């Protein structure tokens, strides 16, 4: 057995070891935090039943004319609960709308959460199968998009919004978009 | 009571699997014949136990036994019976049970049909399958038991995901799993050969029909998935490069490479260690797919309910199976000679190119699928690799593949004369270039560069294969009696050759479909009032309105369209939007007027305003059927190849074992690649 030959035959094992290491590492991670190619683009065309009343529909048209925070959330997502208080506080400021995208969730669970902890959303689209989320490039909950009056996505924030995120990242942009007229 | 029986059968299956993994293998190493003889009955016993477990679960679903947690989660009483059965594999636990059941099925099939296999080889193959079964059964019993009871018993179950309540999707997972698991046979043969240190033409010959058959199942499974996505998701797309789709595509790509590489190993005893590596990779990628779908490492539209403990288990299992087999490979493969030498202009070279292209494509798909993980792990920032990247990579490789594919079957083994090739194929090349020039005209291509390229490649594939068939018939019986010669050939040993031709023509059909639908389709989103008409691609759609219609377990809004071509009405279409009683969001059922040369496709969007207006999607999809038709031809080719007499002789129980392939000069030139 020549050493060179056996090294060659070891290569697949080495490649696999690297792959396995990557997957082990990946198990401990959340597949999120990806830059959105949608920044500066109009929001994807969609229609969804609203969470509150499945017979009523909402669509991308609801995101035009007002500055919107589009918040992707789900009842099973603990970071969303953490974020909930911040959203409740924001919903008291009436100068933009907060639109929820209830994502990969069960309607009953989601409604229960809102009934118990308050509903910061002006509107909630119900997207249990990620059909709309996939066009928004949603990788996990929570994610928040800032959409201007023309329906252009201006910013994507991944992870929960807290006081710091709001003050440093979102508030300046929202203020600027409102000022733009 | 019955669910407990099922649970008990699962435990027995695990115990049998342990015996199966240990004794036949130990027997084959120590020469203990009684231990080796245990292999066959053990394989049958395994199948019996898993059959009982599966039947128990089906019974729980059909009788709506909601004391079983898994049944409650995936079924309810108003679900139509057929979907009660398909709901068995609608979730994680049940689909896993189907997986192991199929694996036991393949194992038993090997035990039945491989009478001519040396006992030691059979014992090792069955043992390796037993080892894999241990892993999966442990996984089920510890983290994903489908027979878990729940108290108090609920009155009604939830519902099967409405997406899955569809005939196409009811049979898509079983086909896919048959393919995935089928590669475990090729894997077991490869590992058995590595253990025994016997990697020869006979090994390749035994593996070939099994590999081809699993590949056929996988092809059909992927095709059904694509077809389902097309008509059910309402987007009109047929491939999305979703991680789960990629997970099924990767084993298919490597499996395709393996089929071709096995041909070289059987005919020319070359590429031996490479073939073994491919066999290991094909099954490893099947396992990797299982891991990706069920671990939550990547998110996907199709992902099962995920759970980190499950992910960890599958990953450990993956490491043991793949790591173990690759270590065995690193240890044993250096002793394998590289086998027959070949000249640059030879069929071996073309098959080598085929293999390299398929493997390169697999690596790209693997990279694209894992790229978000890789980038994050190395701190290179975050990326998402989407549709455009995959399409670009596919377009970069596919044309070369098509070129080689036309050339390969015309080449002779070992060494060929370039001039002979030119004499045989010049007219095919000339006609293809003519097709290229003609379809470049704006009237045909609509200004898209890929249209002439795709069509010319498809023409090249088709014509080159016609040339090859002509040459074979000339050698067999002369071109004057072409029909009888063809029939005789099909009855004789020619099926694997014609199987190859059919499969390759399937590729040509697929290329036409992909090219035309990607470049020339038209789609429009329109708002229409009842009575409105809208024209797209020469078809006029008249919208007559939307009415509520009840279904067995849903309420539908059904639209009514008349489609005209000129003044003639060609079809009436009824797209639906369904609200299932089990809850959840409404489902779109697109209405399609199918045709060999074009599909007309209408899907309902949402009602707009209160005058009965609707937002609608209208599509014109030229040649989209050719994509699935091509896949069906490929699968058909595979079936034809497996039915070749050579394998039947090899499998007939009473005959003498055929250890070495007969290498007559005629078959040597033209037999299947």
Number of helices of chain A: 5
The major beta sheet of chain A can be summarized as:
5 strands, mixed
Helix % of chain A is: 25-40%
Morphology of chain B: globular
What is the number of beta strands of chain B? 10
The oligomeric state is heterodimer
Tell me the number of strands of chain A: 7
The helix/strand class of chain B is alpha+beta
CATH class category label of the largest domain in chain A: Alpha Beta
What integer is the average pLDDT of chain B?
85
CA distance, first residue to last residue of chain A: 77 Å
Largest interface: A-B, 45 and 51 residues
Gist?
The complex is a heterodimer of chains A (181) and B (673). With 181 residues, chain A is α/β, with parallel strands linked by helices.
Walk me through this protein's architecture:
The complex is a heterodimer of chains A (181) and B (673). Chain A folds into two domains: 1-30; 47-179, 3-Layer(aba) Sandwich (Glutaredoxin), CATH 3.40.30.10. With 181 residues, chain A is α/β, with parallel strands linked by helices. In chain A, strands 5-4-3-6-7 form a five-stranded mixed sheet, covered by helices on one side. Chain A contains five helices and seven strands. Chain A is globular, with a radius of gyration of 21 Å. Chain B has 673 residues and is an alpha+beta fold. Among the domains of chain B are: 1-165, no CATH class; 417-520 and 630-654 and 664-670, no CATH class; 522-623. In chain B, strands 2, 3, 4, 5, 6 and 7 form a six-stranded antiparallel sheet that branches. In chain B, strands 1-10-9-8 form a four-stranded antiparallel sheet. In chain B, a hairpin with a 2-residue loop joins strand 4 (554-565) and strand 5 (568-573). Chain B is globular and about 85 Å long. Classes of the chains: A alpha/beta (181), B alpha+beta (673). Chains A and B meet through helix 1 and strand 1 of A and helix 11, helix 12, helix 13 and strand 9 of B.
């Amino acid at each position: 057995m020549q050493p060179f030959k056996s090294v060659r035959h070891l290569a697949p094992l080495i490649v696999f070891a690297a792959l396995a290491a990557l997957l082990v590492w990946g198990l401990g991670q959340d597949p999120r935090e990806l830059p959105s190619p949608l920044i500066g683009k109009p929001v994807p065309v969609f229609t969804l039943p609203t969470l509150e009343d499945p017979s009523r529909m909402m669509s991308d048209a609801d995101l035009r004319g007002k500055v919107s925070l589009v918040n992707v959330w789900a009842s099973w997502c603990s970071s969303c609960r953490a974020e909930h208080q911040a959203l409740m506080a924001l919903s008291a400021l009436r100068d933009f709308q907060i639109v929820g995208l209830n994502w990969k969730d069960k309607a009953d669970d989601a409604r229960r959460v809102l009934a118990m902890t308050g509903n910061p959303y002006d509107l909630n689209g119900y997207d249990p199968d990620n059909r709309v989320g996939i066009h928004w490039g949603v990788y996990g909950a929570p994610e928040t998009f800032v959409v201007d009056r023309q329906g252009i996505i201006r910013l994507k924030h991944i992870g929960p919004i807290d006081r710091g995120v709001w003050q440093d990242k979102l508030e300046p942009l929202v203020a600027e978009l409102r000022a733009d007229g | 009571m019955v669910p407990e029986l099922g649970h008990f059968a699962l435990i027995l299956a695990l115990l049998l699997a342990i015996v199966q993994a240990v004794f036949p293998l130990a027997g084959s190493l120590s020469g203990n014949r009684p231990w080796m003889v245990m292999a066959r009955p053990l394989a049958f016993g395994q199948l019996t136990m898993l059959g009982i477990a599966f039947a128990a679960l089906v019974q729980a679903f059909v009788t709506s036994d909601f004391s079983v947690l898994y049944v409650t989660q995936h079924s309810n009483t108003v679900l139509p019976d057929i979907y009660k059965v398909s709901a068995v594999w609608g979730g994680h636990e049940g689909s896993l049970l189907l997986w192991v059941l199929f694996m036991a099925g393949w194992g038993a099939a090997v035990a039945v049909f491989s009478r001519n296999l040396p006992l030691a080889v059979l014992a090792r193959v069955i043992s390796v399958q037993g080892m894999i079964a241990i892993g999966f059964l442990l996984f089920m019993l510890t983290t994903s038991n489908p027979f878990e009871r729940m108290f108090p018993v609920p009155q009604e179950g939830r519902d099967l995901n409405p997406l899955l309540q569809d005939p196409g999707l009811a049979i898509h997972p079983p086909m896919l799993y048959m393919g995935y698991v089928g590669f475990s046979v090729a894997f077991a043969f490869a590992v058995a050969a590595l253990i025994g240190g016997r990697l020869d033409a006979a090994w390749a010959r035994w593996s070939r029909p099994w590999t081809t058959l699993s590949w056929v199942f996988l092809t059909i499974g992927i095709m059904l998935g694509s077809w389902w996505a097309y008509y059910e998701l309402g987007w009109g797309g047929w491939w999305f490069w979703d991680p789960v789709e990629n997970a099924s595509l990767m084993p298919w790509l490597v499996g395709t490479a393996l089929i071709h590489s096995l041909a070289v190993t059987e005919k020319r005893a070359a590429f031996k260690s490479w073939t073994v590596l491919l066999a290991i990779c094909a099954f490893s990628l099947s396992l990797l797919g299982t891991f990706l779908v069920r671990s939550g490492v990547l998110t996907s539209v199709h992902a099962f309910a995920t759970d980190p403990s499950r992910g960890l288990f599958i990953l450990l299992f993956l490491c043991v199976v793949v790591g173990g087999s690759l270590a065995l490979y690193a240890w044993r493969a250096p002793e394998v000679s590289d086998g027959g030498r070949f000249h640059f202009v030879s069929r071996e070279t073309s098959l080598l190119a085929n293999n390299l292209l398929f493997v390169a494509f697999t690596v790209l798909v693997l990279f694209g699928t894992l790229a978000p993980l890789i980038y994050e792990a190395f701190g290179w920032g975050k990326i998402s690799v989407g549709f455009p990247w995959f399409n670009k990579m596919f377009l970069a490789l596919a044309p070369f593949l098509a070129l080689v594919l036309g050339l390969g079957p015309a080449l002779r083994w070992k060494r060929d004369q370039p001039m002979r090739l030119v004499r045989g194929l010049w007219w095919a090349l000339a006609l293809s270039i003519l097709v290229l020039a003609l379809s470049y005209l704006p009237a045909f291509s609509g200004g898209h560069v890929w249209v002439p390229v795709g069509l010319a490649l498809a023409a090249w594939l088709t014509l080159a294969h016609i040339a090859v068939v002509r040459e074979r018939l000339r050698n067999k019986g002369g071109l004057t009696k072409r029909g009888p010669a063809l029939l005789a050939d099909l009855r004789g040993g020619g099926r694997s050759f014609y199987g190859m031709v059919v499969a390759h023509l399937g590729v040509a059909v697929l290329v036409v479909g992909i090219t035309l639908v990607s470049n020339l389709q038209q789609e429009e989103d329109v708002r229409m009032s009842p009575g409105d008409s809208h024209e797209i691609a020469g078809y006029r759609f008249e919208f007559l309105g939307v009415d509520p219609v009840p279904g067995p377990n849903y309420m539908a809004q059904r639209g009514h369209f008349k489609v005209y071509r000129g003044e003639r009405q060609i079809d009436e279409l009824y797209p639906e939007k369904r609200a299932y009683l089990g809850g959840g969001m409404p489902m779109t059922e697109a209405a399609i007027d199918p045709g060999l040369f074009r599909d007309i496709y209408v899907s309902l969007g949402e009602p707009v305003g209160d005058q009965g207006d609707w937002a609608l999607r209208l599509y014109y999809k030229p040649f989209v059927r050719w994509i699935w038709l091509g896949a069906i031809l490929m699968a058909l080719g595979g079936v034809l190849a497996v039915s070749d007499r050579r394998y039947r002789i090899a499998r007939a129980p009473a005959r003498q074992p055929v250890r070495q392939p007969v290498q007559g000069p005629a078959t040597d030139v033209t037999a299947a690649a």
